[in-house]
Amino acid sequence: MNRNILLLEPNYANKYPPIGLMKIATYHRNRGDQVRFFKGNLNDLVLDLLWEDCLKQLIFIDDTTNWAEKQSLVKQFIKTRNKELLDTLQPTNSLYSPLVVKCLEGFGDRLRRKTWKLDPKFDRVYVTTLFTFYWKITVETIEFAKRLVRHPDEIKVGGVLASLLHEELEQETGIKPMKGLLDKPGILDEGDLMIIDDLPLDYSILDEIEYEYPTRSAYFTFMTKGCTRKCSFCSVPILEPTYKPKIDTFDKFGEINERFGEQQNLLLMDNNVLASPKFPEIIEEIKAMGFTKGAKFVEPNQLELSVKNLREGFNDRAFVRRTFRLMHDMLKRLKGEPAQVYYTALTENKLLGLETTTKEGLLNAYSTIATIYEKFRNKAPKNRYVDFNQGTDARYVTDELMALMAQIPIRPLRIAFDYWGMEKQYTAAVRLAAKHGIRDLSNYILYNFQDKPNELWMRLKKNADLCIELDVQIFSFPMKYIPLFGEEAKHREFTGKHWNRKFIRAIQSILNVTKGIVAPSKRGQKSSFFTEAFGVDLNEFNEILYMPEAYIVYRHLFRKDYGYTQVWENEFREIRLSEDWKIVNAVICGSDFTTATIDTYQPSEKARHFLRHYTMAKGSADPSKDPKFIALKSEYDKLIKENQAIELTLTYDFEDGLDSEKELGVSSNEEELKELVNLE
Fold first, then answer.
1. Using alpha carbons only, what angle is made at residue 495 by residues 493 and 500, rounded to the nearest 5 degrees?
2. Which phi and psi angles does 221 have, rounded to 5°?
3. Cα–Cα distance between 478 and 341 in angstroms, integer?
4. 169 and 175 in contact (C-beta within 8 Å)?
């Protein structure tokens, strides 16, 4: 008997599609099950499910009215029970009106009274999990899933958080999570011989949702599994305890190409690929996949592929949406007679809005517009790239291995720089990369672990110096350490023993505009983002750590226009040498500048006067007065949009605790600021 399967990803921001769920989707489709994927507001999912049931009843009552065209109005009525909408929702034949009204009101009652929970739609629900600090939203998603599944034993929870905090998650939700990999037969269904971890990905589920992942046109896979290291800050030894030096990958790509078309890039999730004695074989396989140095990619006809899947009945929910989007994306590019023919075909088949779009309409329109689409679609060759996204281990790098790496279009080459103690190995690895012509590099730079703040600056400075010396680009991404276990793993408030909340917020303030990126220094530049943002030396860096967050972000505004920064610097240097410093330091390091908190320290008048820099009124600064801020933000927005290496690296960690300029606590009123800082 076919089952109704729901795949859920909690509604957090993440850069990669849920690879585990994409494999599980393939597994269940192979078994003949119905599969649905959702990521978003779960109340919207309930509304969608109610609409689908309501639509069936409305058609049964009156099949002469095109109820699909009224989807948004029906949903709005179910959600609000606004009786003024009933006039618009009247059926074609007024004889059916009483039944239609009763139907609509009934579904409105089901939502309001939550009686929909008495009729769960799914035989099994999967919930994927990611970082442990997404604890709250993950638990909420699991609790919601209980209302959607027919039997609670059929809720399957897996992924990173589920593997690391499995006992806590079971205690919190009553659902026993699945630990580790789905790398053996029979894990999901007794007796089934499929190994989920070996299955190709079902890309179609990504078109079922509104959320767009930054990285989509890529093959996501592994060449190895696990890691030979046992770093205490890393979860890999727990998630993938056995190192596998070579994973069979090549055959999966044929299935993906047949169903979804060739992908532009190759995104490899290996945790320590250079540790593999079979690395030469891995490089040869990557080249055999079409990823040779200088390889080009011409995007296949996506509309043709989408229509092919529609005709075959493969995930209609996804491919109706995808075909509709592809058709309308092309319409925006057309002019003249082709545009008129194309638009007429869409109009005649009621394809101008998604609500009125049907599978039949899409297939009918395609017969008219197929040649136009093929003629005008983008066929420009694009570069193909390979990305070992989890980074390579500098301690394994040799001249021979780097020569092999240079044979594929690696961009960027990520080399781990987790702590200052590996500076020699890291520097040697970067030099070898430059020697073999690899000029685009990137790394995550761990901080807030056992390191000291100065060591973060030193690693960033090393990258800046290497960029200039070797004429390479190294994009650095400072990443704040979060514990793997315990209560501190469930949020992002952890501070390492050498850090405090103010220092962490200072780093986040620096990175807020640039989405977490520290861009490379360039030869001939008088200054760089690094020196301006982090300071020219350790003394300046340490002052920046203490600087009010608004002064950090809006450097030009507060230094050049208002002159507040110079006042703060003079007062800061003076108070550090006074007997008030102990109390001032405690207040600043706690990063809580409310009057009530400051009062608990019983500061002197001098200390309280200095702390006025940190107690500005809530609001937002006016960036239009800070052209440097605007220019920098624009530069980085453009960089992120155009640079594949940056797009593949975005981590969202920079959002922790500082989501927008509004959180800087700055008034937009210049007179109010002057009064607060008491400069005049």
1. 110
2. -160, 180
3. 52
4. yes
State the DSSP string of 486-517: SGGGGSS----TT--HHHHHHHHHHHHTTTT-
Q: Is the pLDDT of residue 175 over 70?
A: yes
Rounded Cα distance between 555 and 64, Å, is 65
Query: C-alpha 524: how far from its chain's center?
Result: 35
Of 191, 177, 98, the closest CA to residue 142 belongs to 177
Q: How far is CA 232 from the centre of its chain?
A: 25
Give the pLDDT band (50/70/90) at residue 660: very low
**Domain segments of the chain: what residues?**
4-181, 302-379, 550-638+658-677
Cis peptide before 120 (omega within 30 of 0): no
Report which of 409, 382, 438 is spatially closest to residue 293, judged by C-alpha positions.
409
Q: What is the pLDDT of residues 249-307, one digit of tens each?
A: 888 888 899 999 999 999 999 999 999 999 999 999 999 999 999 999 999 999 999 99
Q: How many CA atoms lie within 13 A of 339 on its CB side?
A: 7
Distance CA 204, CA 458 (A): 45
Query: What span, in angstroms and rounded, lies between the C-alpha atoms of 531 and 548?
Result: 18
Residue with tokens 């509309």: 303
* Residue 38, beta-bridge partner list: 8
Task: Return d(Cα 185, Cα 162) in angstroms, integer.
Answer: 20
Residues 416/392, Cβ–Cβ less than 8 Å = yes
Q: 99-117 burial, b for 16+ CB within 10 Å, e for fewer?
A: ebbebbeebbebbeeeebe
Contact 422, 430 (CB under 8 A): no
Nearest to 550 by CA among 536, 535, 538, 562: 562
> What are the φ and ψ backbone dihedral angles of 201, each rounded to 5 degrees?
-80, 145
Per 3-state DSSP, the chain is made up of helix, strand and coil in percentages (nearest 5) of 55, 10, 35
Distance CA 241, CA 575 (A): 52
State percent of the chain over pLDDT 90: 77
The closest alpha carbon to 533, from 586, 621, 429, 457, belongs to 457
Distance CA 345, CA 351 (A): 8
The whole-angstrom separation of Cα 657 and Cα 285 is 43
Over residues 99-149, the pLDDT tens digits come to: 999 999 999 999 999 999 999 999 999 999 999 999 999 999 999 999 999
Q: Residue 236, SS3?
A: helix
| Measured CA distances, 95 to 60, 68, 90, 91, 221 (Å) | 14, 20, 10, 8, 58
